[in-house]
């Protein structure tokens, strides 16, 4: 029903406006008695065979919602009813920021893809914390970054502010250092700085009674030398894992005509065109490191088979975002059924 009726209607309108409209509709129906039960009965699968233990955490199933969909932790309880095993919020920054100028979100229908240059628009970490206090036992990942106007010498301070504020309310952390839509990005790709950042966050982690897993989110456009550096970095810092991957800056082999792509301009590409690239990154990291650390696989998952490929390549868990928009909530159930 989603692909035949709902999606064609939603796709008639501006993507960002539709995103906010969809949020309102999910919230509205979730407040009506019995509707949450209906969502759960339609989409959730509870089976011990789906459970996974990763980072020392128990996941009810390995299918998560990637960061960017519920940036401000406004809908995680309701979205959980669609069958997700975990939900990643963010990217959150210390201060609220409006992000890049609109229009900044674009559908590539012929490619089953999205280009975005949102620029970490969010209401700030303190606002998210207020809502996370109402968590009904949903396993939550906290994706954190820096404010756009933060000076390079203060990047680590921004990450630490978010980390300390979120620590009691999330189950694992993601250091987002690979988003192509924020300014002053070069320093975040420097191995020496990444080492400094990870160690600083790990030091802060030790000040809490219960330490939380910390993972690094990387780009799909890294070459083998850069991936080798990531493997070395994880080993040197004893980081808990990696998310592979973020959006891509590549425009290779897209069906959309070049003039239309040029009109859209810069931004991160997600969806089916980055599926193979993301899977190759997962496979390389897993094989080259001899499966030394867990990997969350994300990028171009639009079917159960796409998810299985990520897991077979070496991912311990998977996340969806663009596939959720194009395929609807049935995708989560399809993946879990295929796993069983």
TrEMBL record:
CDD domains: DHOD_2_like
GO biological process: 'de novo' pyrimidine nucleobase biosynthetic process; 'de novo' UMP biosynthetic process
Membrane topology of this protein: Peripheral membrane protein
Catalytic residues (positions): 179 (nucleophile)
Binding locations of FMN: 67-71, 91, 143, 176, 217, 245, 271, 300, 321-322
Pathway where this protein functions: Pyrimidine metabolism; UMP biosynthesis via de novo pathway; orotate from (S)-dihydroorotate (quinone route): step 1/1
EC category name: oxidoreductase
EC number: 1.3.5.2
Molecular function in Gene Ontology: dihydroorotate dehydrogenase (quinone) activity
Cofactor entry: FMN
Compartments, as annotated in UniProt: Cell membrane; Membrane
UniProt-listed Pfam families: DHO_dh (PF01180)
GO cellular component, one term: cytoplasm
Source organism, top-level taxon: Bacteria
Residue span, Dihydroorotate dehydrogenase catalytic domain: 50-339
Family to which the UniProt record says this protein belongs: Belongs to the dihydroorotate dehydrogenase family. Type 2 subfamily.
Oligomeric and partner information: Monomer.
PANTHER family (UniProt xref): DIHYDROOROTATE DEHYDROGENASE (QUINONE), MITOCHONDRIAL (PTHR48109:SF4), DIHYDROOROTATE DEHYDROGENASE (QUINONE), MITOCHONDRIAL-RELATED (PTHR48109)
Protein name, UniProt field: Dihydroorotate dehydrogenase (quinone)
Species for this entry: Aquimarina muelleri
């Amino acid at each position: 029903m989603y692909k035949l009726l709902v999606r064609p209607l939603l796709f008639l309108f501006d993507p960002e406006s539709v995103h906010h409209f969809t949020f309102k509709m999910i919230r509205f129906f979730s407040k009506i008695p019995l509707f949450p039960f209906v969502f759960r009965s339609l989409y959730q699968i509870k089976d011990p065979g789906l459970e996974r233990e990763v980072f020392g955490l128990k996941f009810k199933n390995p299918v998560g919602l990637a960061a960017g969909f519920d940036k401000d932790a406004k809908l995680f309880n309701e979205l959980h009813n669609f069958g997700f095993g975990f939900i990643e919020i963010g990217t959150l920054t210390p201060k609220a920021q409006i992000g890049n100028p609109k229009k900044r979100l674009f559908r590539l229908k012929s490619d089953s893809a999205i280009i975005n240059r949102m620029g970490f628009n969010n209401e700030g970490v303190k606002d998210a914390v207020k809502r996370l206090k109402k968590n009904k036992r949903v396993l939550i990942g906290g994706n954190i970054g820096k404010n756009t106007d933060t000076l390079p010498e203060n990047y680590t301070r921004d990450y630490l502010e978010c980390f300390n504020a979120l620590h009691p309310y999330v189950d694992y952390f993601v250091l987002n250092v690979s988003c192509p839509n924020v300014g002053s990005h070069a320093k975040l790709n420097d191995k020496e700085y990444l080492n400094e950042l990870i160690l600083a966050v790990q030091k802060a982690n030790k000040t809490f009674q219960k330490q939380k897993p910390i993972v690094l989110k990387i780009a799909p456009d890294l070459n083998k030398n850069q991936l080798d550096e990531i493997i070395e970095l994880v080993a040197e810092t004893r980081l808990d894992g990696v998310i592979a991957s973020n959006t891509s800056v590549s425009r290779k082999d897209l069906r959309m005509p070049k003039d239309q792509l040029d009109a859209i301009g810069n931004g991160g590409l997600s969806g089916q065109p980055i599926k193979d690239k993301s899977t190759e990154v997962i496979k390389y990291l897993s094989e080259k490191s001899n499966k030394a650390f867990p990997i969350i696989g994300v990028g171009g998952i639009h079917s159960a088979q796409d998810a299985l490929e990520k897991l077979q390549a070496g991912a311990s868990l998977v996340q969806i975002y663009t596939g959720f928009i194009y395929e609807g909530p049935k995708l989560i159930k399809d993946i879990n059924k295929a796993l069983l």
